[in-house]
Amino acid sequence: MNNTVLVGLQWGDEGKGKIIDYLCRDADVVVRFQGGNNAGHTVITNQKKFVFHLIPSGILHKNKICVIGQGVVVDPEILLKEIENLKKVGIPVSKKNLKISNFCHIIMPYHRIIDSLREQKRVEKIGTTKRGIGPCYKDRVSRCGIRMGDFIDPKAFAFKLKDNLREKNPIFKEAYGQKGFRFNSVYNKYKKLAKKIEPFVCDVTDYFYKRQDKKFLFEGAQGTFLDIDAGTYPFVTSSSVVASNALLGSGLAFINIKKRFGVAKAYTTRVGEGPFPTELKAEVLDYLQDEGGEFGATTGRPRRCGWLDLVLLKRAIKVNSINSLIITKLDVLGNLGKIKVCIKYKKSEKIIKNFPYSLENLKPVYKEFRGWNKDISKVKSFSKLPKAAKTYLNFIEKYLGIPINFISVGKDREEILKKRKGEK
Ligand code: IMP
To answer: Which of 52, 75, 101, 209 has CB 3.0 to 4.6 Å from 70, enough for a Cys bridge?
Structure first.
């Protein structure tokens, strides 16, 4: 396997967890490089369903090193719960198979609270996951964040926490009419968490500089249109989601990434607010939500659903320099008589073929396909798919001008088809 990065090409929830789980059989190291526990990656093995928020899904495999890179924001309580839950079902997690960068920023309780309060006050709501992601990244760029290296050093932690509370408590009181945080209660609770996390913390750059011969798999979270720069700003998350951040967000700039996989669902979903040109409002929405289980893995919110948007995908391919495509959840479309894909937009009679600056007030122009009316989850090869499904996939490939390598046709680990023989 070449060193590989895998990112979502839509608004997240493309089914990346399952694909990472599949690809990481050939990897030695699996790396998260951005985001935090706003992500929810689901993997279904024959025994159990696992939802990961922070730890790379590679942890389910023996002899893999999982890395939480410097671009990730870590909520210590969530991380420890995730480790505990894995241990409970017999999956070993130790400093041997989990490395956390000492440069990661820590999500503190005040980040979570301010995320909710700010959202209530906003005129233009984002619909955040309320996990404190935005406020934590905000502190990072404001240079008042608490990094993992400070967190595990009781003196540095006390100094930074005091400094933060001195600034933040008056904001809580004056802007939101809320009580602030007492230093002692936060410090005492978080100091204990830090002690448990300390063994996993290391200088990731240093550690892997000597191990460059390993095979690296970089696991993106969220999706391209939630990227802070490339996404539908301001309705985005606060990190760089795109493939080019894999090196910076991991601290592993010396790794040569050859393969850039983009994952797209066979239709489109979005959680939270923001423009969504192909969004559906009626029966097909109910069908996709039910059939696709389109409820957030992190917040349980119903996902907005719509047809596949190829104008968006073409943009995401450029933005991430994707050289291989993966289509997921094709099986979900199985009982639809007609399937549509957006090939351009219309804005007051003007045709728009390329990604526009704003996605507001666009009317999608669709190409319609016949459905295949068949359960394809047990199909074992691309050639055995119904003709209508192949036509759908071939059209996507032709429009986008890049090959589809894998097609996911079910929830289970093994329900993946290779479009071309010998694909790895
Ligand atoms: P935040 O990342 O919690 O600040 O949320 C910002 C926006 O990104 C909201 O619309 C969220 O619903 C969305 N979002 C964040 N993480 C994910 C994800 O993993 N999947 C889908 N949407 C996400």
So the answer is: 101
